[in-house]
Design brief:
The complex is a heterotrimer of chains A (811), B (164) and C (295). Chain A is built from 20 helices and 29 strands. With 811 residues, chain A is an alpha+beta fold. In chain A, helix 7 crosses helix 8 and helix 12 packs across helix 13. The radius of gyration of chain A is 28 Å and the shape is globular. By secondary structure, chain B is α+β, with helices and mostly antiparallel strands. Helices cover 33% and strands 14% of the residues of chain B. Chain B contains 5 helices and 5 strands, in the order ββαβββαααα. The longest helix of chain B has 16 residues. By secondary structure, chain C is α+β, with helices and mostly antiparallel strands. In chain C, a hairpin with a 2-residue loop joins strand 6 and strand 7. The chains are: A alpha+beta (811), B alpha+beta (164), C alpha+beta (295). Chains in contact: A-B, A-C, B-C. Chains A and B meet through helix 1 and helix 18 of A and helix 2, helix 3 and helix 5 of B.
């Protein structure tokens, strides 16, 4: 199955993204743009120590500063609130917005100052006198699981938050019976998506309505719920406004501690309170770092490089508190073999606390580091057997005829044709010519390499990793929703029940509904009701919105169409099943002149009750709340579960060079093949892929949250944490392929994480291919220029020494 | 300190505390929230405004330093309510944005580039926007937007848009 | 990240600026602000008074004056970048300017600001040291000057006396006909602070023999390093790559290099050698009218 059998009216056509209009004129409405009368501002007092007892907090001088209203400490906040929700069953690792008695990482928030202006709040924050008694700390994850380590949470007893080993299939036997085995380690360095907008939240408590209004730069499921629980409010006492534009998130904008902090302050002070992180607060204490992972991998394979079994141990440095991060070890279970037909898998996941900034959910939720590890395995297998790296992948790929394909960990991949995508990419690239070019560059004295990566984008986002890692959590519902109303004028309005960070959801919904109703999407208004006026949503995580919001919008539109058909048929006088709907008209196909047009049907529904079919609700409002396809079951006792419903695929091919005297990789050419099923909006999908690749380039070559031996974050501003600019992202050619998903209304799969999933692996592959003639390889990301330069110099020196020895022996 | 700024063609006089950056003054006092704070230390470029048509980082200037300057923000580019300049429209055509946070800065930078260079090469476009970080788009569709705008402006009968 | 509060003065002339500085320990000069303002935003720098000299017209100029090009301290970097007299008479300065920050920072940043800041990775600081520029400053009502070799004392430290104000920098003009320049820097991203750089200006006679040579290494040591040994050794000689490499290697083996988050000392030493030779050879090629190493 390659191209979809249907042709669409609006889906897959090259339409503009309607949200763009407001942003190009500067009329986006971001959290820091929102002003409430009487609003006050927060600045944070942060810990300078990686671990310390907080012995005293003296607020006197701060309170005397101009414009200051309040100084809040952790004890007062803890007395009035519940701890923030934890995903794992770790009651002795509570997490709160402000540290209580102990600071556990440099930059942790210890106190909050409220003042008339942000500048005044910062002035006063400097005057809060905190006395600390430094404690032993630990930064390295292997040290942290060792016997003599400092323990970040004493009451928990160790630094291990999670230690689960899964065995799916006959791993022992497969290893025993395989002629070849390899073991290696790779490290994924600590980076994150670092949006240009920091997290901001404004909360305003109305004591008469007893309602907390919240405007936030948020991308998080259950945000209003978790605020309510923490503040001990009824769920219906928190109203999150979804019409706030989010300046990029890619997973990390889960500012639940920020929201609880300002929510409490607003209630306490009777004033609206706003916290907009400055960049230092964000980098150090925003709790938005990404995975920092050690992978120890063993693979068992045959003489032609077919991998039969894999053991993977992943140890993640989650930082000082458990946010969502341990689950970033769980989601990859749903694609633990990548696109390969590996027969059995052992997966050992360990989440470890250290005195570093906590992690948050980062784009693809742990899949990109896992893909990097899997692709290193495939490359090393090929290298070991001296086989072509493309050929080995082709041999290992699940083939198109095998779908739906169930992997050892229990997830079934819906559809795909990995061989076809690979072939398309090789053809577009002129692979033979690329190899020749690489060899020519090598002959000229440059290090040159071809980078290859093949990987999956699990999409549709359910939360099966939660019951997988926490048996006390029985959540199997993961929904999204859409409501459509046609008003008395015949205008269509639909809803999105969450915030967006540039993914084009309004355009998505209008396109889907337009497709279903055969009406130009330009005529469909999309609005965002607040959380109290919304139906359930789980926000744009897990690359789910095309599937879930698209699905819900489609089904709501189908219900509307059914209503039109029922009304029209009833008025015409034919059975409902006999009427035809076309572009807003309902008619009798046998006598097409017996027809009601859109406005006729609207009039009847809204005003002519006597003409409606008996028992029908008046008006034209429909809605749909949808469960994630294939979801709904708990994991089996041995940890098998359907993780996500749909699997997009990408295949990267790049050519890079490294000046051997300098050590700086330069990407010369990049082609990526991308199959995300039916593409609803091509401009949106391409933008996502290019943006994901840029993120991947950052993670591979530039970005790292580096700590010194004292637990201080060395890269805490944009001067040291290096984000790729336009110079660092080369042109990329994208080749498309479509294997529709059987689970979705148009065959669409997700694409919100595309590019990021495979780019780091592709770059690592290219660098290692370039280093191949020197007999060295890099097994960690990011790859830094000077470190690479030193490696190359050492290898060349050694080669020269060996050559000299050889010469001497010959003589 | 008394400071006079001409912003999008209008004169504004105010008594401004010296430590207020031009960015914060534009946003908070003048309600021009199109310029954004991304880092407040002059790296990300989201705060870009034009001073005498030249892109500068407004987070790296105190408003009092800008006394007497002619400033253009994103709000000063559209020809009229509901309308888009050719550059703004080009960004919509190629979807040269996603979240919109870096977008006003990118568009102002593009305006300035095209005002001085009506036939920019791809390299010149890439270089012009290299001081503006985008985390969403990977830059491809931004570069295409600027190239597209250049092409359209070349084809039009009017001289390139001059910022007011 | 809002700065600590401060007072703001805009003196009409340099003497007034110096008088304010002399009378107030917490006063600091601001010109372009591209380096100072981020430091203030992070509260690493907390002047209680800013003395804004950016509009003192007497401090903003680019002119040929005898055997030098004199550039006023508050001249914007973008102005110098476009100045024909700099392109023609101080080609090494013209060569490095596009590498200084980004266009928006060059629109505001000043030549004097970069020099007074004395960042060891700053391109203009490297050129000042390499060409042996003269820094002119005003102190206590008098004008004084200092050679670049004496001016840059350590990372972010100059010998500028307290309470003084840099007013101009003079870059020597080479009278020779065939002058070429070369510059290379290594950074993580283009336009980042370099972690090692090299600059060279070479004058050849009609037979291709070196009449004059200036070479400097930047970002690798506490202050940029002028390779006077190389300059002395190769004036009057043909510049051959293998000879240069051996000589530079020798000289750098006696130098102590910075080791930090970005690069090891070994890296800096090794790459400094590579870049110095490349910069010199580029300069030779340009002096001859042909180019080899593309940047």
């Amino acid at each position: 199955m390659t191209e979809p059998a249907q042709r669409f009216r609006f889906v897959s056509t090259d339409r503009r993204v309607r949200e763009d209009r407001r942003f190009v004129v500067g009329k986006g409405r971001f959290a820091a743009d929102i002003v409430q009368p009487g609003m006050r501002h927060v600045a944070l007092v942060t810990s300078p120590h990686p671990a310390a007892k907080i012995t005293s907090i003296d607020k006197t001088a701060a309170l005397a500063m101009p414009g200051v209203h309040y100084v809040l400490d952790g004890r007062e906040l803890a007395a009035a609130t519940q701890p923030l929700a934890a995903g794992l069953d770790t009651p002795n690792v509570p997490r709160r917005p402000l540290a209580v008695d102990r600071a556990r990482y440099v930059g942790e928030w210890v106190a909050a100052v409220v003042a008339d202006s942000r500048a005044q709040a910062e002035d006063a924050a400097e005057k809060v006198r905190v006395e600390y008694s430094p404690l032993p700390f630990v930064l390295d994850v292997e040290e942290a699981i060792g016997p003599r380590s400092a323990v970040v949470h004493q009451a928990h007893g160790s630094n291990v938050l999670l230690d689960r080993r899964f065995v799916w299939g006959e791993v022992e036997r497969d290893f025993k019976e395989s002629p070849h085995k390899l073991a290696f380690r790779v490290k994924w360095g600590r980076s994150s998506t670092v949006p240009i907008e920091t997290f901001g939240v404004l909360a305003s408590w109305d004591p008469w309505r007893e309602m907390l209004d919240v405007w936030a730069s948020i991308q998080m499921p259950k945000f209003p719920d978790q605020i309510a629980v923490a503040l001990k409010l009824a769920g219906s006492a928190v109203r999150v406004h979804h019409d706030v534009d989010v300046g990029g998130s890619y997973g990390v904008k889960r500012g639940i501690k920020h929201a609880v902090l300002v929510g409490f302050l607003s209630r306490r002070l009777g004033l609206p309170v706003r916290l907009v992180e400055d960049r230092l607060e964000n980098m150090r204490g925003g709790d938005a770092h990404g995975p920092e992972r050690l992978f120890d991998i063993e693979v068992a394979f045959d003489d032609v490089g077919v991998i039969r079994s894999m053991r993977m141990r992943a140890i993640d440095n989650v930082g000082a508190y458990a946010g969502r991060s341990p689950f970033q070890l769980g989601k990859p279970v749903g694609a633990i073999v990548g696109p390969y037909r590996i027969n059995s898998v052992q997966y050992h996941a360990i989440a470890v606390t250290t005195n570093k900034t906590p992690q948050e959910a980062v784009r693809a939720f742990g899949q990109s580091p896992t893909n990097y590890a899997i692709e290193r395995a495939i490359e090393q297998v090929a290298d070991h057997l001296d086989l072509d790296r493309v050929g080995v992948r082709q041999r290992n790929f699940i083939s198109a005829s095998e779908f739906p394909y169930t992997i050892p960990s229990g997830t079934t991949y819906d559809s795909g044709d990995y061989h076809a995508v690979l072939d398309k990419v090789l053809s577009r690239a002129g692979y033979g010519g690329m190899i020749a070019e690489r060899n020519r560059l090598r002959a000229e004295g440059t290090l040159a390499g071809i980078g290859i990566a093949a990987c999956l984008e699990p999409s549709g986002g359910n939360s099966s990793f939660e019951p997988l890692f926490n048996p006390k959590n029985t959540t199997t519902t993961w929904m999204d929703s859409c409501r459509i109303n046609v008003d008395t004028s015949g205008a269509i309005t639909a809803t999105v029940h969450t915030t967006s960070a540039g993914q084009g959801h309004e355009t998505l919904v209008a396109t889907v509904i337009g497709e279903a109703l055969e009406i130009d999407p330009e005529h469909i208004r999309v609005v965002r009701p607040d959380s109290l006026a919304s139906l359930p949503s789980n926000s744009p995580v897990g690359s789910r919105m095309a599937i879930m919001l698209g699905g819900a919008a489609f089904h709501a539109a189908q219900k509307l169409k059914a209503k039109f058909l029922a009304i029209g048929a009833h008025v015409i006088g034919i059975p409902a099943g006999q009427a035809t709907y076309s572009t807003g008209d309902v008619f009798d196909p046998l006598m097409p002149e017996k027809r009601l047009k859109w406005l006729d049907l609207v009039q009847i529904a809204h005003r002519n009750y006597y003409r409606l079919p008996p028992g029908m609700e008046p008006g034209l409002a429909t809605s749909h709340v949808m469960q994630v396809p294939t979801g709904g079951k708990l994991p089996t006792p041995d940890g098998r579960v359907q993780m996500y419903p749909c699997f997009s695929f990408e295949f990267h091919l790049l050519l890079l060079t490294i000046d051997p005297d300098i050590g700086k990789p330069e990407i010369r050419r990049w082609i990526v093949g991308h199959d995300c099923g039916t593409v609803i909006n091509p401009k949106i999908v391409r933008g996502m892929t290019m943006g994901g690749i840029a993120h991947g380039i950052g993670a591979a070559l530039y970005e790292e949250f580096a700590y010194d031996g004292e637990g201080q974050l060395l890269t805490q501003s944009f001067m040291d944490y290096l984000l790729p600019s336009s110079h660092e992202v080369p042109p990329v050619e994208i080749v498309h392929h479509v294997t529709p998903s059987p689970h979705t209304v148009f065959g669409q799969k997700g694409s919100g994480e595309s590019g990021y999933l495979g780019a780091p692996a592709a770059i690592a592959s290219g660098v290692n291919d370039a280093l191949q003639p020197l007999g060295i390889s890099v097994n960690r990301l990011p790859i830094k220029v000077a470190a690479l330069g030193d490696m190359i110099a050492a290898a060349r020196k050694k080669a020269a020494e060996n050559a000299k020895k050889f010469e001497a022996i010959r003589k | 300190m008394r400071t006079e700024l001409t912003v999008n063609g209008r004169a504004h006089v105010a008594d401004i505390e010296p430590r207020t950056t031009l960015l914060d003054h534009l946003r908070d006092a003048l309600g021009l929230t199109g310029a954004h704070a991304g880092c407040e230390h002059g790296v990300c470029g989201a705060c870009t405004v034009l001073i005498d048509g030249v892109p500068v980082r407004s987070c790296l200037m105190f408003a009092v330093q800008a006394d007497g300057y002619v400033i253009t923000t994103i709000e000063g580019l559209a020809p009229g309510p509901g309308e888009l300049s050719p550059v703004q429209d080009a960004f919509c055509e190629t979807h040269g944005l996603q979240c919109g946070y870096c977008t006003p800065a990118m568009i102002l930078t593009a305006h300035a580039l095209l005002a001085g260079n009506s036939t920019p090469t791809r390299e010149e476009i890439v270089d012009a926007i290299s001081g503006n970080i985008c985390r969403c788009t990977g830059y491809a569709q931004i570069v295409e937007a600027i190239a597209f705008a250049a092409e359209r402006l070349r084809g039009s009968n009017r001289p390139p848009e001059q910022p007011r | 990240m809002k700065p600590a509060p401060f007072e703001y003065s805009r003196p009409a002339d340099v003497d007034e600026a110096c008088a304010i500085l002399a009378g107030d320990d917490g006063a600091r000069i601001i010109a372009g602000g591209q380096t100072l303002v981020p430091m203030m935003a992070m509260r690493l720098s907390r002047p209680t008074r800013l003395v804004d000299i950016a509009r003192i017209t007497a401090l903003s100029f680019v002119r040929e004056k005898g055997d030098a090009v004199a550039i006023g301290a508050t001249t914007r970097q973008c102005v110098v970048e476009r100045a024909a007299v700099v392109r023609d008479k101080v080609p090494l300065l013209a060569k490095v300017l596009p590498f200084v920050g980004h266009a928006p920072t060059r629109a505001r940043g000043t030549v004097g600001g970069s020099l007074a800041n004395a960042d060891p990775a700053a391109e203009m600081v490297l050129v000042a040291v390499t060409l042996g520029a003269t820094l002119v400053y005003r102190h206590g009502g008098k004008i004084d000057k200092m050679d670049a070799a004496d001016f840059f004392v350590g990372p972010l430290i100059t010998a500028l006396p307290a309470g003084s104000c840099l007013t101009a920098v003079r870059f020597p003009i080479w009278a020779e006909k065939r002058v070429g320049v070369g510059f290379h820097e290594i950074n993580a991203r283009k336009s980042d602070f370099a972690f090692v750089s090299a600059a060279a200006q070479v004058a050849l006679d009609d037979e291709g023999v070196c009449r004059r040579i200036a070479v400097g290494i930047g970002a690798a040591t506490d202050t940029p390093l002028r390779l006077t040994t190389i300059e002395n050794a190769f004036t009057g000689r043909r510049l051959k790559e293998t000879d240069l490499r051996d000589a530079v290697n020798q000289v750098l083996s006696f130098t102590e290099f910075i080791s930090d988050l970005h690069a090891s000392a070994e890296y800096r030493q090794r790459v400094a050698e590579t870049l110095a030779v490349r910069a010199i050879m580029d300069a030779v090629a340009r002096a001859q009218g042909t180019m080899t190493h593309a940047h």
